[in-house]
Write a structure and sequence with these properties.
heterodimer, A: about 270 residues, alpha/beta, Purple Acid Phosphatase, chain A, domain 2, 6-stranded mixed beta sheet, 7 helices, about 30% helix, globular, B: about 220 residues, mainly beta, Porin, 8-stranded antiparallel beta barrel, two-stranded antiparallel sheet
């Protein structure tokens, strides 16, 4: 081997070894190994609840979802969000990964670390694969949680079914936290899978609709279908809002007012 | 990380410049059980006489490896075939005690390693590359979809292919069991990561590698 090969090999190895990210990986399925931030949703909720007004005050949120591994579009989406003024927070409707593997969570975190607004995410079915549910809980916290902000309640509901080997979602919890007393202005439910999807049995679908209706939920927000939808389903009196995926290159803006919710779509 | 690089560079530059040799040197007396394995045997199967040597099936080497996407630690055994091919079957483990993961992952890996040069660099260093196939066993991994999913709902996520490159610093030994030992490093890239590096601008070729370091012990 000549000198050029020698020097080239050593330089290449050194650069690669020192320049690569995440170079020590025990398994793509690893969880809890400490490289990811922890309890992001819980930290965001604490921050938002501190900034929240005790009485209702109009506010605006942005809604995105199903970023999967569409990283280039997702990065543009984060830049587009940063270019919008006056968003109180961002909701990601789930499926932040494609295969639920550790490095996909790291890449997601790297991209959203550029976002200047607080973000809350709900788990998607893809995030549940390959120990992804454990990585997700390490990174974001509980799978079911609520946010009370400006006298509105947002109920984030884990409705993953098949990836839990056909386990019913915790409808009892959903009903309990969605109950609207007179002091709350609006209740919105956020879950990844819309209740009319194949994952829901007829009984589960009816129960989901019934809980939404009985608790006068103002809007039911979802992802999963990869296409935008806003309106009513025949079986339910509560309106639905479904976000598309990152390749749609749009952001949904939801203006929450005392007597109405206004939906706007902003392309980038 | 730094100590790994430092160790490898140290081995490359400071190990005595002895002649490396992968084939058994033959001059040093082998252990009795190894010598007996080299003796020809024959057996008759369905009227046909089969000549063989037990040494053919006894592994040529064992490997102990740290990291490389196949567990915190993995151990395996393999062969050296047709001068250039070195297959190794390994078992890797990641759990709370070994790697600090809150979930246990068992990985079976077939490392298909190929020698890239006919002679070692610096008389000792053998550049190698190849393809490893990893079977990962943990929660929610499957090679065929469970029955409750619609057909083709997910692509299988249990088996991953990972091309790798690296090399081994080989040192001959005068020992009745071993002909030599080596310390190696490998950079592997899982198929899922490579796909994203090809498909997106965000993931670059610097983001996909996973470093493994390990030791190989070669039997007579």
């Amino acid at each position: 081997m000549n000198t050029i090969h020698t020097v080239g090999s050593i330089i290449a190895f050194s650069l690669l070894a020192t320049g690569c990210n995440n170079i020590i990986e025990y398994s793509p399925y690893q969880s809890g190994t400490g490289e990811l931030p922890q309890n992001l949703n819980e930290k965001t909720i604490n921050r938002l609840e501190q900034e929240s007004s005790a009485k209702f005050k109009s506010f605006r949120i942005a809604i995105i979802g199903d970023s999967h591994t569409y990283y280039d579009d997702f990065r543009d989406q984060i830049k587009a969000l940063n270019a919008i003024d006056s968003i109180d927070f961002v909701i990601h409707n789930g499926d932040i990964t494609l295969s639920g593997i550790h490095r996909e969570f790291m890449w997601f975190n790297d991209i959203v670390s550029e976002l200047k607004y607080p973000m809350l995410t709900i788990i998607g079915n893809h995030d549940f694969l390959s120990n992804g549910d454990l990585v997700y809980q390490e990174m974001f916290g509980s799978l079911n949680f609520t946010l009370d902000y400006n006298n509105c309640r947002f109920v984030f509901f884990d409705d993953i079914i098949w990836e839990k080997n056909i386990e019913d979602p915790d409808f009892q919890w959903l009903h309990q936290v969605s109950q609207k007393n007179d002091s709350i202005t609006h209740v919105c439910v956020v879950s990844h899978i819309p209740p009319w999807s194949d994952q829901f049995s007829m009984g589960n679908r009816y129960l989901f609709y019934k809980i939404l209706e009985d608790n006068n939920v103002k809007l039911s927000i979802h992802g999963h279908t990869h296409s935008f939808f806003s309106g009513y389903r025949e079986e339910c009196e509560v309106p639905f809002l479904v976000s598309g995926d990152a390749t749609d290159r749009e952001i949904i803006l939801l203006e929450i007012k005392q007597d109405t919710l206004l939906i706007d779509r902003k392309s980038f | 990380m730094r100590w790994i690089i430092t160790t490898i560079i140290f081995f490359i530059f400071w190990t005595p410049n002895l002649k490396a040799q992968f084939v058994p040197e033959g001059s040093y007396k082998m252990a009795g059980f190894l010598e007996r394995m080299y003796e020809p045997r024959k057996t008759v199967i369905s009227g046909d006489t089969l000549h063989y040597r037990p040494r053919w099936v006894f592994p040529r080497h064992i490997k102990v490896q740290y990291a490389g996407s196949v567990g915190f630690i993995s151990v395996g055994a393999g062969y050296h075939l047709w001068d250039v091919y070195e297959p190794t079957l390994s078992y890797g483990l990641l759990n709370e005690a070994l790697g600090g993961s809150n979930v246990t992952v068992h990985t079976i890996s077939l490392k298909n390693s190929f020698f890239l040069t006919q002679k070692p660099w610096f008389d000792h260093f053998w550049p190698k590359a190849g393809l490893q196939i990893n079977w990962g066993n943990t929660n929610n991994t499957f090679s065929s979809l469970p029955a409750h999913y619609p057909e083709k709902y997910y692509f299988q996520n249990k088996v991953h292919a990972a091309p790798f490159w690296g090399g081994e610093w080989y040192q001959p030994l005068k020992d009745k069991h071993l002909t030599g030992w080596g310390i190696y490093f490998e950079f592997s890239a899982l198929d899922a990561y490579l796909l994203e590096a090809i498909r997106t601008d965000y993931v670059t070729m610097l983001d996909v590698w996973s470093l493994a370091v390990g030791f190989t012990f070669y039997f007579h």
